[in-house]
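Checklist before submission:
- one chain only
- standard amino acids only
- sequence pasted in full

Submission:
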Amino acid sequence: MGHADESSATALPACPACGAQARRASARYCGCCGRHLRERDYCPADSLRASYRWPAVVPPRAQRADARVAPRWQRRNEWTARGYVFLAYALLPVVGVAFCACAVVCCAAGLREAKRAGRATVAVEARRGVAYAVLLAGAHALLWLFVFAIPVWL
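Returned file contents:
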């Protein structure tokens, strides 16, 4: 108990090189750049060491400009993410048709799950996945037509 009262009464030291605040009063080295906290002498390497590891100051989510829009990878549920992986495999020239069907099934399952959970942005991503898979299947059909069917007809 005396340890907690002692640490709250003393001020935490700041690093002379990078300015990061120490995590505890008894710290001897900076947790950010590794400089000794008790030595106040100038060291030429301080600027170089501190430039590689700046303290991570991240503003709260409410203050960030992008607080309203989540990244695209966070707008997918598990099924939709699997569907997008199948879409990546569907880009393969000949065998990609099989992956298109898997992508449609996975994205449709993701759409159903998103509608049940009431997550509109996830549902939009799942609809896009289904549309991309159908477009890729159509492209595969056209490629099959151009490569295999038309030469036989001629």
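Reviewer check: Residues 72-153 form one domain.
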